[in-house]
């Protein structure tokens, strides 16, 4: 992104941190910077030895990522008449250095860094996704990966450059709306992937898988996360969308399979 530091997109854990700071009257930017400084202390260059369970998750994540590449490769050629630039998946433990998005920490949740076009995934998040957020089943993790791939698509199409530039021009409340639209579009793209997964890749999905995807989307809605943390929600602080909105846009992507039907920025209900 032009003229400054690139931002990572996604990050469910970071959303919770920002929510807490807003309720407590703090500066979320300052809090995130403090967390990043803490992460820098714990970042290690030592090779990480994964467990057997983690190895299975890594293999599963690789299968999902390969499926997204097959699907989006076909969709880009059919609808956009261009090649789909592949991205990479980086698995880490605790904290990780990125090329242009600062230090990522497991508490941030999975995130996409446009600077190096990678998805960063701490495998402990899969357990957190199930136990803390109530999103169970393998497809919950598949949805998360597909959502982050959605941010990659936004980057490739130039959208993230535009939304990032708005940070300096809009106040926090106004930019939160832009952030919600950005995240919901990534949910939509995750649904488009699910629509074509069986057609363009070796991943076969059924109704229960799609239901799991919708439940995963709902589990990480801003209203649900805020109510879990404080027993109430503050719509003005939403940055990712409500549970209902996230599930709706994922399902719309799945139902239509049309990359052009996901213009969340033109939805009057999100203005």
TrEMBL record:
Keyword Glycosyltransferase included in the entry's annotation: no
UniProt main location, coarse: membrane
| Membrane-topology descriptor | Single-pass membrane protein
**Which Pfam families does the UniProt entry name for this protein?**
Zn_peptidase
Question: InterPro entries, from UniProt?
Answer: Uncharacterised_pept_Zn_put (IPR007343)
Keyword annotations from UniProtKB, A to Z: Membrane, Transmembrane, Transmembrane helix
**Subcellular location per the Swiss-Prot or TrEMBL entry:** Membrane
Q: Where are the transmembrane segments?
A: 7-26
Superkingdom of this entry's organism?
Bacteria
Q: What is this protein called?
A: Metalloprotease
């Amino acid at each position: 992104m032009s003229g400054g530091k690139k931002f990572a997109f996604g990050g469910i854990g970071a959303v919770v941190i920002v929510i807490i700071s807003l309720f407590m009257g703090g500066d979320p930017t300052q809090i995130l910077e403090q967390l990043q400084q803490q992460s820098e202390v714990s970042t290690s260059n030592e090779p990480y030895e994964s467990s057997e369970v983690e190895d299975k998750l890594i293999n599963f994540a690789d299968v999902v990522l390969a499926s997204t590449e097959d699907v989006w490769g076909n969709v880009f050629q059919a609808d956009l008449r261009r090649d789909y630039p592949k991205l990479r998946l980086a698995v880490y433990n605790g904290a990780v250095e990125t090329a242009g998005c600062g230090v990522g920490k497991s508490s941030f949740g999975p995130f996409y860094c446009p600077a190096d076009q990678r998805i960063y995934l701490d495998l402990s998040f899969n357990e957190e996704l199930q136990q803390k957020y109530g999103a169970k089943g393998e497809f919950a993790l598949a949805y998360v990966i597909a959502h982050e791939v959605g941010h990659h698509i936004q980057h490739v199409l130039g959208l993230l450059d535009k939304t990032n530039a708005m940070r300096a021009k809009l106040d926090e409340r106004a930019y939160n709306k832009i952030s919600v639209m950005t995240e919901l579009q990534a949910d939509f793209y995750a649904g488009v992937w699910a629509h074509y997964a069986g057609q363009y890749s070796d991943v076969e999905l059924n109704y229960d898988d799609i239901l799991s995807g919708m439940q995963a989307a709902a589990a990480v809605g801003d209203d649900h996360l805020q109510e879990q943390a404080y027993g109430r929600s503050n719509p003005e602080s939403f940055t990712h969308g409500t549970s209902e909105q996230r599930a709706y846009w994922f399902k719309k992507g799945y139902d239509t399979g049309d990359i052009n039907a996901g213009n969340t920025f033109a939805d009057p209900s999100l203005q």
